[in-house]
Amino acid sequence: MTLARTWSVGLAGVHGAMVDVEVDLSAGVPGVVLVGLPDAVVRQSVDRVRAAVVNAGGRWPLRRITIGLSPAAMPKQGSGFDLALAAAVLAADGAVPAASVEQLVLIGELGLDGSVRAVRGVLPAVLAASRAGHATVVVPTGNAGEAALVEGVEVLAAGTLAEVVAHLRGRAPLPRHTRGALPPDAPGPDLGDVVGQPIGRRAVEVAAAGGHHLFLSGPPGAGKTMLAERLPGLLPPLDEQAALEVTAIHSVAGTLPPESPLVTRPTFEAPHHSATTAALVGGGSGLIRPGALCRAHRGVLFLDEAPEFPRAVLDTLRQPLERGSVTISRAGGSATFPCRAQLVLAANPCPCASAAGDTACTCTPPERRRYQTRLSGPLLDRIDLRVDLPAVTRAAWLEAGTAPEPTAAVAGRVAQARAAAAARLHDTGVSLNSQVPGRLLRERWSPPRPALRLVERALERGALSVRGYDRVLRVSWTLADLAGRTVPGGDDVAEALGLRLQRTAA
Ligand SMILES: [Zn+2]
């Protein structure tokens, strides 16, 4: 046999596509010819594969080796093709039976010593293999947990190329990996730890119930980060499909913990203000890496000290947040990732970040004003809730007395409110108040006129834009849902207006 074929998987974003790997050996000057647009990384992979085969005790054929990867039009990025290339070369050379690899899908990078190394994106790759009707995949041991999340596919875990060769020769079968029981969820930070800050606590509860973006402003120590970190705990756990979706993103990002391969809870991503656009949204060379925004899909993206982020970087968030997905283009192709994240921004009142009224603060009033307007504009316009948190004084600590409500109690109310909203919106294609289009909101769910008096007055005197008006309506519905009311009353509208107009005019 001088011709052999096997399968691997290429990735574009979180979508896998089957790649047919063909190897032909012919007489002629020994060497390797690659056809099918392989990127530079795949070219390097030939050198790795040769070293791995030799160091695994195999023989590298001294023939003219033609390697074809098809479909040719698909960019093949990353090092995950190594194992399939090695298997196809060995099969073409007769070192392993060609029939043993013909239907097999192999994913993994080879070390020069013949070890099989974990790669990014194995979950979406195995999903693609399953969809294409393949029954068996060989993956690196380090990726076996995520691969086994896919139902209906036999997952074989490989630690070395020698093990794979022994398996293909029928001598020592590779261990089958099955989906294990999920480790119990480690409890996240609890809202019961947040003393005082009734407005802040209320704001995260409302944000969780309606899926609203949130802006927290206040001096250091006011608890902005504490509150933001507790928002994911208030969101409902991810169902199986959502969990696989989020896990696939983390698989491609390379941020999946091997001991708990399925992400079942909404995630919390908090990039530093020095983060680049690539770190925030996605990018990198080779296999495009999703950024913090995509890793926060169905979870929370927290930007602490938001005014410190370069404006250009923040502006790249606008469209993806609106659309729920982001497309990253590189020379080697483009990738689209979902990014339906809930945004929480936090800001200090002034650039020196001293506590309000602190004598150490030397910022002039214009400096403070300028700092607070750094965020103004289109991004801020997408934020329904804006809350000013006061400094937590010692007196407030001592007065707090009764223990604050824990996450479990608040999450229960959030779940009820979300269920009420989903029932009301069942025929609209959305399930959260924050997602209801403005026109639909005004046509179908305008609260009774008397309840709207306050917000109409704010609109008339220019304190509220039309978009702002819609946002107040959305939050009013969330407040009504939380209170178990079928329609928002004047109090709900007034509270929503308060949660919107804090600090900056809308
Ligand atoms: Zn200052």
UniProtKB/TrEMBL annotation:
- GO MF annotation: an example: DNA binding
Gene3D superfamilies per the UniProt record, alphabetical = 3.30.230.10, P-loop containing nucleotide triphosphate hydrolases
Q: Which UniProt keywords apply?
A: ATP-binding, Nucleotide-binding
Domain spans labelled MCM C-terminal AAA(+) ATPase? 288-385
Q: Which SMART domains does the UniProt entry name for this protein?
A: AAA (SM00382)
What's this protein's family per the entry? Belongs to the Mg-chelatase subunits D/I family. ComM subfamily.
Q: Which NCBIfam families match?
A: YifB family Mg chelatase-like AAA ATPase
Record protein name field: Magnesium chelatase family protein
Natural source organism: Geodermatophilus pulveris
